[in-house]
Amino acid sequence: MVPTFDKFMFPVLNYLKDGKERTNKEVQREMVRQFNLNDDDLQETAGKGSNKFLSNVNWALTFLYQAGLLTKPRKGHHIISKSGFDYLAEGITSITEKELVKRFGNVNPKFFYSNGKSSTTKPEAQEESATPEEVIKAACYKLKEALITELLDKVKSIDPRDFERLVVQLLVKMGYGGSVEDAARVTKYTGDGGIDGIIKEDALGLDFVYIQAKRYTTGVVGRPEVQAFVGALSPKPTNKGVFITTSSFSQQAIEYAKQVHDESIILVDGRQLCEYMIQYGLGVTTRDVIELKSIDSDFFDFQ
User: Fold this and answer.
1) Which of 112, 133, 163, 284 would be a feasible disulfide site paired with 215, CB 3.0-4.6 Å?
2) Which pLDDT value is given to residue 132?
3) Amino acid 11: pLDDT
4) Cβ contacts of 48 within 8 Å, gap of 6 or more
């Protein structure tokens, strides 16, 4: 029987502790060996016919990557990160989704809905008894997760200056700055202690928001970086700031931002950035639209 995806997370991370670059196939072969899976196990499918073993191993890799415990030097290849080494050094013997969410802010599991109620059950566990609507929602979740991972890799690969321009475009789409041209005139290298740019809070420019935009390919943004950004805001006429990164924020950085009272600081990590890009249609395109129709009861109400 194929283990659930969370059962694979620790063995996968532990397998990569030698620091070598491994492919998806190598990880899969090692999991087959460690769990002594037979041919029947490897042929096991979920409700929609997807291969349960491959799906669960991919889920494990996705969560470890989102948590910053793995890096992907290129497509389909994985290497343990410094955070991954540090995590193993704590003497852990298992990893759960709940623990990753608690420890690493970049992990953001989604919820599925049935009759208006949320459930954290993964698609593989729901497909056997799911309604067609629930199956569609589960599939959409998988597609979105894959898109977020691909989009984040793409954003991390662009030039730091292009990343700042991307941030400007996103903020304008979200309603800041009035226009890209107007916003771009004030969003530039300021050379001012931890501030990368300034953008109008609204089209009229009644107030401004200071920006820190950092394209990190590895590592986590810690409290010192956020504290420096807050310090740079102190002498400014406004106390509003947005720190946007392709990486994630340490728990200490998140807690510090929450405790700051004199300034209003918003932290946007790589995953949230991609969520906004998808929501506001930046860097993505609509490939297909599915319409679900139901009976119009009013039409058939002849009484």
Assistant:
1) 163
2) 66
3) 96
4) 127, 135, 139
Closest CA to 18 of 102, 74, 63, 84: 84
Tokens representing 22 are 């491994």
CA atoms within 13 A on the CB side of 229: 31
**What counts of helices (H) and strands (E) characterise the chain?**
13, 11
Regions in the chain scoring below 50 on pLDDT: 109-129, 190
Residue in the structure block whose two tokens are 């089209």: 203
SS (H, E, C) 113-145: EECCEEECCCHHHHHHHCCHHHHHHHHHHHHHH
Q: Which amino acid appears at position 228 of this protein? A: A
CA 170 – CA 237 distance, rounded (Å): 24
Classify the C-alpha dihedral 59-63-68-69 as positive or negative: negative
Whether the Cβ atoms of residue 55 and residue 20 lie closer than 8 Å to each other: no
For residue 116, what pLDDT is reported?
Answer: 34
Q: What is the reported pLDDT for 120?
A: 40
Per-residue pLDDT, 137: 77
Q: What is the pTM of this model?
A: 0.57
Burial of 234 (0-12, 13-18, 19+ CB in 10 A): exposed
57-60 own/partner pairs: CB under 8 Å, 24+ apart: 57/5, 57/8, 57/12, 57/24, 57/27, 57/28, 57/31, 58/24, 59/5, 59/8, 59/122, 60/5, 60/6, 60/8, 60/9, 60/12
Report the alpha-carbon distance of residue 216 to residue 250 in Å, rounded: 14
Q: Which of 88, 50, 96, 52 is nearest to 70 (CA)?
A: 88
What is the rounded CA–CA span in Å between residue 215 and residue 217?
A: 7
* Identity of residue 87: Y
Structure tokens at 211: 């920006």
Q: Can you give the pLDDT at residue 55?
A: 84
pLDDT at residue number 297: 73
State the residue for tokens 């802010």.
Answer: 105
